[in-house]
Amino acid sequence: MTTLSRIRIGSAPDSWGVWFPEDPRQVPWRRFLDEVAESGYEWIELGPYGYLPTDPAVLREETARRGLKVSAGTVFTGLHHGPAVWEKTWAHVADNAALAQAMGAEHLVVIPSFWRDDKTGEVLEDRVLTPAQWRELTTQTERLAHEVRERYGLRVVVHPHADTHIDSEANVTRFLDATDPDLVSLCLDTGHYAYCGGDSVKLIETYGERIGYLHLKQVDPAVLAEVRADEVPFGPAVARGVMCEPPVGVPALEPVLAAAQGLGVELFAIVEQDMYPCDPDKPLPIARRTRSFLRSCGA
């Protein structure tokens, strides 16, 4: 077994069924912090802004007494719409980046906006960007990455995601080829990339210098086949159980982690098993088993 000495394992509110700052179907934030620590994780992400306390002093106290540290914040953006959305985008980004910085994090995960509503399935815009929209997406992402680095000292890692315009291998590589490697890195989510037909190991081997962060996730191939056949939006697909507990899904995580270790750089690998909404008693046993599985992989 390879010791994954460069991989720092963590988890996130997502693995506890948390998608929104407030939702009666989600576990309370104190329970999330208690259970993620109990599961054996040391690192967490902030999740949706406002779910965890946004006062850094409060959050530092709450995380420190549970032995937890923060790896990243997360923001949603629609940068392909160009300068018209910059101010609104920046207001959202600044709040998240300031809290992440105050908590000692080094990364900001940037997720593109959905082309169809993740709850209702309503089509919000064309699923294919025009060349002009691609230019806006790449140039505005570079601008965002520059501003976030200069003002908050954080590195932007862009997260390819189902039902967004950065999803498949073709779109991910197009995005990488059109952006400055010094500014823009990738948060490779193994589950989302498999959901969209991509090969995570191949991406790491081909674009290794652009991999700045990992989300560890698996998809259930049988459910995925149904979801694709029925053209089910991402939210309902999650409710069907398309994202599953490792190691029963794809991709196999051992070769992904080995390829990441081979890059020779320190990388966070944050477990994210989408399962909104879920029974509040469901996440903890899964988290314990997942942490144990990752230890068996050397992480």
TrEMBL record:
Record-level Gene Ontology MF annotations: myo-inosose-2 dehydratase activity
One of the Pfam families matching this protein, by short name: AP_endonuc_2
Methyltransferase is among the record's keywords: no
Ranges for domain Xylose isomerase-like TIM barrel: 33-294
InterPro entries in the cross-refs: IolE/XylAMocC-like, Xyl_isomerase-like_sf, Xyl_isomerase-like_TIM-brl
Keyword Lipid metabolism (UniProt): no
EC number: 4.2.1.44
Keywords: Lyase
Name assigned to this protein: Inosose dehydratase
Taxonomic source organism: Streptomyces formicae
